Predict the structure.
Amino acid sequence: MVFMVKAGSKTLSANGVGTISIDVSAGRVFRAKKVTFNSTGAFSITEIKDSAANFNYVAGELKSTTLKNKANANVFELDPPIEITGDSSLVFNLKDTSGSSNTVDIAVWGEEESTR
């Protein structure tokens, strides 16, 4: 098992939507343990989805303003971890709620290994 950080960025138009995909190659498994984020404005995560399994891990909307942890950091733990087996992607569907153009950066921290 190898420590791995996978990241993506998306610029959203005012009140627009967009997607960040964290890809997992065929023959690999990625266990996502935490997500860190940064943005130039407020946004919501409307889905966190395994594209191959077509499974959504979110019920409702996760607002960026409420995702901060006790230390006021832009991080949320995934307990238990989300496991994605390639060839697949962990897809974050986003919606701008700031009312102006907004760039969202997401990094997913975890472990990756061969499926053997």
Notes: Residues 6 and 111 are 10 Å apart (CA to CA). Residues 2-114 form a domain with the Jelly Rolls fold (CATH 2.60.120.730). The first strand starts at residue 2 and ends at 12.
